[in-house]
Write a structure and sequence with these properties.
Length: about 120
């Protein structure tokens, strides 16, 4: 239902979104969606450390992987957190992309079947 979707969008991106306790995930989703690519944040940089302070625990690395399923008209962003600093390497990015694609396909299939 489009009205439910709009309500969820308002919660994550609306004027009152900064009032939420946990703001990191919505910010990562927004950034990944806008960039159309993987967003990798570590506590090693000043900006990264500031962003990760918004997390709900002692997160050292956060990765957001946007996935677009054009056939089902579904856009999702899968977010990964680590309490250890993870270096962005091509093999790590590729692994997380494959994991995200698997999750997205499973969720789209589940949504179509009414499982979720």
């Amino acid at each position: 239902d489009e009205s439910v979707r709009q309500q969820l969008v308002e919660v994550y991106y609306g004027e009152r979104s900064n009032e939420r306790t946990h703001r990191l995930s919505p910010a990562l989703c927004k950034r990944a969606k806008e960039a159309g690519e993987v967003v990798w944040v570590t506590a090693q940089t000043r900006h990264g450390a500031e962003a990760l302070k918004c997390s709900i625990s002692d997160v050292r690395t956060a990765v957001a992987v946007p996935v677009c399923h054009t056939g089902a008209a579904v856009n999702v962003t899968i977010i990964y957190f680590s309490i250890r600093r993870a270096i962005m390497k091509p093999t790590a990015v590729e692994f997380l992309i494959h994991m995200s694609l698997a999750v997205a396909v499973a969720s789209v299939n589940g949504l179509e079947e009414g499982v979720m």
